[in-house]
Amino acid sequence: MLPSPLIIGHRGASKFAPENTLAAFRLALEVGADGVEFDVRLTRDSVPVIIHDGNLKRTGATPYRVADLSLTELQKIDVGSWFRIEGFASERVPTLEQLFELFVETDSLLYLEMKPDPGEKERLAQACVEKINASSLKERVIVECFDLSALAIVKSLDPSIRTAALFEPGITKPPLVTPGKRLVDRALAVGAEEIALHHRLATERVVNAAKNSGLTVVVWTVDDPSWINRALSNGITALITNDPAMMVSQREQQASD
Q1: Is 52 a catalytic residue?
Q2: Of 52, 181, 186, 198, which is the active-site residue?
Q3: By Cβ atoms counted within 10 A, which residue in 59, 62, 184, 244 is the most buried?
C-alpha cells in the first residue's frame, strides 16, 4: 500500500543539493521521497536534458541558452558551484536518459515537466515520448506542462502515457464558472489523468471538483509540514516539496500519532 500523501522531491531534494542534478535526485532517494519532479528542455542537437531555466545564468554562471548548446558543450558547464553548500562542483546538467538510469532500480514516481521554447512543443514532446518508451519506467512517468496543448501532443503520440495538467495562480481570471470547474474542464479536455495545482489554487472546492471528476490531485511546491494533515483531510494524493526529508518525517510522525 502506498503511503499518503506521496512526497515528491521538487527538482530533487533541492533544498540541500543543487536543483535538477543527479546529486539532488540521489539525495531525494536517500531521504525516502516517493518520487521526484524535474524539468526537461532540448539542447541544440535535440537531446532532452534536465534543467529549469532556458539559460544558464542562474545555475551555470554563463549567459548561454540551453537551446544554443550541443549536449557536449552543455555538459562542460559546472551547475553545482552556484549552490550555497560546497562540494557540488562536479555536477553537470543530466540528460533525461541519465535520470531514467538512476531510477531503474527504484519504484519512484517521475514527474517530468516539459519546458518547451517557442515553436518546439512538437519536438520536445516527441523526444520525451521516445525516451519514455525506450526506458523500462513508462508506468511510473507522469508528463506535466503548463502549456496544455503540449500534453495533447503527448497523448496524440502515445495515449498510454500518463499526464498532469499544471496550473498556477492568475489563469483563473475572469472565469464565468467557478475556478475549480474551469481548471478541471481544461485538464480533462486534453486527456490528463492528474491535475497539479500551485498551493494557492488548492482550495477545498478545487480539490473536490478535481477528485469528483476522477483526477488525481497533486499540489506544489510546499515546504510546510501542515500540508500533510491538509492532504490527508482533503484527499490530495501527492505533495511536491523542496525538502522531502522533512515532509517524509512529518508524514511518519502523523502515521504514528
Answers
A1: yes
A2: 52
A3: 244
Separation of alpha carbons 189 and 73, rounded Å: 39
Under the banding of pLDDT at 50, 70 and 90, the label for residue 172 is very low
- Give the per-residue pLDDT at 175: 47
Which pLDDT tens digit goes with each residue over 214-229? 999 999 999 999 999 9
Of 5, 8, 9, 10, the active-site residue reads 10
The pTM score is 0.96
DSSP one-letter code for 214: T
Cell of 45: 542537437
- Residue of 123, 122, 125 whose CA lies nearest to 112: 125
Do 128 and 154 form a contact (C-beta atoms < 8 A)? yes
Q: Mark 233-253 as b/e (b = at least 16 C-beta within 10 Å).
A: ebebbbbbbbbbbbbbbbbee
To the query of whether residue 199 is one of the catalytic residues in this protein, the response is no
What are the domain boundaries of the chain? 6-35+107-256
CA dist 154 and 125 (Å) reads: 6
